[in-house]
Amino acid sequence: MIKILIKKRSEPLSLLGLQSLINRLPDNHQKYTIIEEDLRRRKAGFGGELNFDKHINEFRPSYPFGLLHDICLQYNGVYFQMDSVLILPDKVIIFEIKNLGGKLTVKANPTQFIQEIKGERKIIQSPITELERKIIFMERWLRGRGIDIQVKGMIGLAYTNELFIEAEANAEILFTHEIPIRLYNLIIDQEILSRNRIREMANIMVDSHQEYNPFPLTKTLNIAKEDIIPGVICPKCNRKGMKWHLKKWHCSGCFHSDVDCHLPLLNDWFYLMDSSITNRQFRSFSGIDYQPIAKRLLKNSGLVLKGNRRSAFYIR
C-alpha cells in the first residue's frame, strides 16, 4: 500500500464563524433561530465527514492512491467543493457525504431525495444532482490540465438509515462503513496514472484549493454590527464581560482568571466584524480602558501591525 498524499480535513471556517456568531448574538434576535439551525446542520455535516474519514482509513490496497479531504477547485469562474477525492491508477472518485437522519427514499425522473422523520416528510436537495455537477466540473478541470481519466461519484450516508431506492440512481449510494469494502472490490482496468503522476495530480489539487472565506459574517449575513454583543467571554462559564486586572482577565461570575482570554475575542472580531482591528476598536470590543495595555495585548497576540500612530491597525 502506497498512499501518495492526504489533505487532512479541518473544521470549516463557516462552522467556526457561525459558532462565534451564535455566542455573540442576542437569543431574541430575528435571525438567531435561522443561524442556530444552520449551525446545527453544518455541525452534523462535519460529523458525518469525520465518520467517513474513520472508515476510509481502512482502505489500504496494494496499489498507489491519493486521498484528499475537503477540496474546493475552480473551473471557468465556478467553484465546486468536494468532501473527499480519491485518486486511483485508473479513475478519480468524488465522495459526497451526508449525515441525514430518518427514513430516506430516493426517486428518479425527476431525481428526488425524500427524508421522513417521525412521520414528517420533506424533499431535500438531492446529493445525486450535487454530485453529478461536481463530476462534470472535475472532468473539465482535469482535461484543462491534460489529464483524461474517468471520474465517478459515491454518496456516503453516515447514518445507517432506513433506505429505499425506488429507481436506479446515477450514483452509488452507500453507508460509510460499506465504502472500504466497495473500494476493495473495484477492478483497476488499466494504470493510466503512475505513482508519480498520482502524486503530481494530488499536489496540483492541493495547490489549486481555494477555501471559501465568508468573513466578516455581519456583512455576509446582513447583520448590524451593533447587534453583536461585545466583551471577553469566560471560557469556564461563558459569561461575557471579563475584566482585565493585575495582568489577567477575571470573571465576576465563576472567578476564573487567565491571561489569554482575549485571543478568542480577536477571532470573533475577524469572523464577525472586519478584516482589521485598531487599538480603539479592540478597547471598545474587549472593555479595556487603557490604551497602552490594549497595545501590548495586540502586539503579543500574533497579529501584524500596519501603518503608524493614528493610522495603525492590525491584521492576521
Compile the SSE list and pairings.
Blueprint: E1 2-7, H1 13-24, H2 32-56, E2 64-75, E3 78-87, E4 91-98, E5 103-107, E6 112-117, E7 120-124, H3 127-143, E8 150-157, E9 162-165, E10 172-175, H4 179-184, H5 195-208, H6 217-220, E11 243-245, E12 248-250, E13 257-258, H7 262-272, H8 279-286, H9 291-299, E14 304-306, E15 313-315
Parallel strand pairs: 1-2, 4-8, 5-9, 8-10
Antiparallel strand pairs: 2-3, 3-4, 5-6, 6-7, 11-12, 12-13, 14-15
Domain NERD: 44-161
InterPro entries: NERD
Pfam family, one: NERD
Give the class from helix and strand content and strand pairing: alpha/beta
Total strands: the figure is 15
Uncertain regions spanning at least 5 consecutive residues: none
DSSP strand content = 25-35%
Alpha carbon gap, first and last residue: 40 Å
Helix and strand succession?
EHHEEEEEEHEEEHHHEEEHHHEE
- The general outline is globular
Number of contiguous helices: 9
Question: For the report, how would you describe the main beta sheet?
Answer: 6 strands, mixed
Biggest β-sheet: strands ordered side by side in the sheet = 1-2-3-4-8-10
Total domain units: 2
Radius of gyration: 24 Å
| Proportion of helical residues | 25-40%
Average pLDDT, rounded to a whole number, is: 93
